[in-house]
Design goal:
Layout lengths: L1 H7 L3 H5 L8 H4 L2 H4 L3 H14 L7 H12 L3 H7 L8 H16 L17 H55 L3
């Protein structure tokens, strides 16, 4: 499992040589942020799933800060945040809104579609998007927090389970070949 993940994650040494990352060397290149085992992988998946629901472009920044705090695998956490993208964010927010409405026990706010990208420009669209987000209010905010915790917990447990079953399978396979 470790070899499979290491093949797709960036190399520690190549990132340490990057001139943009050099000022953060002592903090960013702590060995526990780059070590990959079942504990750091499960924690990284949980961090990535939790921080993936942070609105806007701050998902990876939030994941990096959480990785520094919890000392889990940084590249895997950053990769895991990519489950939210322009194709998946609206359905995820609809689910979060429904969860928040269910917890609050009311349907006070009707769900409206997010604003379309208009010809007015990026700043006008961002302003409309913020207004839309604030208009959804408490159900969406509460739903996002609950969904983030549930996804993080499920991701942590499923990663631990998958890693363990992978190890058990290879242990049995290795012992089956012994004479």
């Amino acid at each position: 499992m470790r070899r499979l993940l290491k093949r797709h994650l960036p190399d520690h040494a190549s990132l340490a040589a990057n001139r943009w990352l050099a000022p953060f060397g002592t903090t960013l290149f702590h060995p526990r942020l780059w070590h990959l085992n079942r504990h750091s992988a499960a924690g990284a998946v949980a961090v990535g799933l939790f921080c993936g629901l942070i609105p806007g472009p701050f998902q990876m920044l939030g994941a990096a800060i959480c990785c520094l705090l919890f000392r889990v695998n940084l590249p895997l956490a950053l990769l895991t945040t990519l489950y939210t993208n322009p194709l998946t964010i609206v359905p995820i927010y609809v689910v979060a809104f429904a969860i928040g409405e269910w917890i609050l026990g009311s349907s006070l706010t009707p769900f409206t579609q997010p604003p379309d990208w208009g010809s007015a420009g990026l700043l006008a669209w961002i302003g409309e998007l913020i207004h839309w987000f604030i208009g959804l209010g408490r159900p969406l905010a509460l739903g996002l927090i609950v969904l983030a915790f549930v996804l993080a917990l499920c991701g942590y447990l499923l990663t631990r389970l998958a890693w363990r079953s992978y190890l058990i399978h290879h242990w049995h396979k290795r012992h089956a070949h012994k004479p």
